[in-house]
Q: What sequence folds into this?
């Protein structure tokens, strides 16, 4: 593991709370991105990604220094996201209406009187559309696709984060790609 | 749609570069004469490109401060050691 990260974790383990801020700064964007892509909603993404860091802090003593910290942290964030999805929608199916899109807040964050250049409007719409397609995937395929294509992680890392054999991760990526292909092919 | 079910798995293996040279060659030959599989592969490539075109998202500016505010009180144990 990265020597700098290791040093910071040692300090946190010794009780230096301020050192934890450095860890948050290092990983906040990635953790936020995982939560946002899983949930498709900025409020829930903030909630879950903050919770992930709080859990990491309170459980730091159980973190094994020989492991990669990001893998451990992403696992916490992914599990919390999946729990949240389960609570929202106990029976989630691919054919269900797209979840989370009503709350999709990209547009509402732009002040109404703010003029956006045409290409930027197109970009926002495109991003919103991609996210709604990702959110329409069943959570088990969604997490594999996000970790592979948005976080650029290796199959081995994804298998550690999701606590699944590499072969299962591969299958989930294949199925996720197939499901997305069916939805996107006419675009 | 790929021409048969086993071929879909082949297309994914091909995409992930998990084929032997021979398997790869055989599939490429098949793709030349099978329009369905060729189309399926192109759709999969397009799907990946679309997903990868999602922009990277950053955490809100006050994120770290908010997390730090919520941390439980600092451990007191150090006090007694000194």
A:
């Amino acid at each position: 593991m990265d020597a700098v990260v290791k040093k910071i974790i040692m300090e946190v383990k010794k009780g230096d709370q301020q050192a934890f801020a450095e860890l948050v700064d290092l990983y906040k964007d990635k953790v936020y991105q995982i939560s946002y892509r899983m949930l498709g909603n900025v409020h829930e993404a903030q909630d879950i990604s903050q919770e992930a860091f709080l859990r990491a802090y309170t459980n730091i003593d159980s973190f094994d220094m020989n492991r990669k910290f990001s893998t451990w942290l992403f696992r916490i964030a992914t599990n919390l996201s999946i729990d949240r999805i389960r609570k929202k929608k106990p029976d989630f199916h691919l054919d269900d209406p797209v979840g989370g899109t009503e709350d999709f807040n990209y547009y509402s964050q732009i002040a109404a009187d703010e003029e956006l250049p045409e290409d930027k409007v197109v970009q926002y719409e495109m991003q919103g559309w991609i996210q709604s397609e990702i959110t329409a995937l069943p959570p088990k395929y969604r997490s594999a696709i996000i970790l592979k294509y948005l976080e650029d992680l290796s199959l081995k890392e994804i298998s550690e984060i999701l606590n699944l054999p590499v072969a299962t991760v591969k299958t989930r990526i294949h199925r996720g790609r197939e499901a997305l292909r069916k939805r996107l092919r006419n675009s | 749609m790929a021409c048969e079910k086993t071929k879909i798995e082949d297309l994914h293996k091909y995409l992930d570069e998990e084929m032997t040279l021979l398997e790869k060659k055989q599939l490429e030959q098949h793709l030349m004469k099978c329009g369905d599989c060729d189309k399926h592969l192109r759709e999969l490539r397009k799907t990946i490109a679309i997903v990868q075109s999602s922009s990277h998202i950053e955490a809100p500016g006050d994120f770290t401060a908010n997390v730090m505010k919520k941390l439980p009180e600092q451990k007191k144990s150090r006090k007694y050691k000194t």
Remarks:
- Chain B touches chain A through 34 residues (CB under 8 Å).
- Chain B is about 65% helix and 0% strand.
- Helices of chain B lie at 5-15, 21-33, 35-52, 63-70, 77-81.
